[in-house]
Amino acid sequence: MVRAELNPCYILHNRNYRETSLLLDVFSRRYGRLSLLAKGARKQKNDKRALLQPGRKINIAWSMRRELGTLTGVEPCHGINPQEAGGLLTVFYINELLVRLLHRHEPHPELFDAYAEALAKLTDSATEQATLRLFEKRLLKALGYGLALETDTEGNAISPDQYYTYLPEQGPAPGAAPDPGALQISGRTLLALAEENLGDEIVLTEAKQLMRKALGGLLGDKPLASRELYRFTMNIEQQHNP
What's the CATH number where 15 sits? Predict the structure, then answer.
């Protein structure tokens, strides 16, 4: 059995377990993604549940036996509460990506830092989409699927004035593709992603298409629950504000 003392983690997801407990997915800088059982966390007099919400940064301790550990300590940790800062649906989306794509017990310290940075920047709704695209880019890199953004498949430097066909596992190929379903993307967008400067609406739109295609190959056919929740929320808002 492995025991870990209090260290900072983010709550990625929680779900009810039996009558009084919670099952948690957490993200630790040192230990990676972990699954933990929080015994009695749902009891009426237990004040831990408020700390165990998605996106919250807390100090936790646990004991680990194989794949599932047991929460043994919880303390508040200074950090942004996404439920107060806005962008909660985006936090759910980011968290779901991590739960779906990260293997347990594999540390990703740089991705942990990128996650913390993204949460801090989500307080600014004006830059929310750019923040999300850059986090997706860093996630792909951490998973070993970093995007080729500065040279094409022939080894030439990307031209901002040229369009490319982005080929999975190969990168941007110059010219149009014979497959009508292939993703066409401008060199300007590729370079903007490389420089992490996404202030243009056209660039943001193309970057979103690229990230969706790149992540889709890793996520498979199972739809993201956070994306379905976003669509449902938008439909409700449209009904109330026709």
Answer: 2.40.50.140
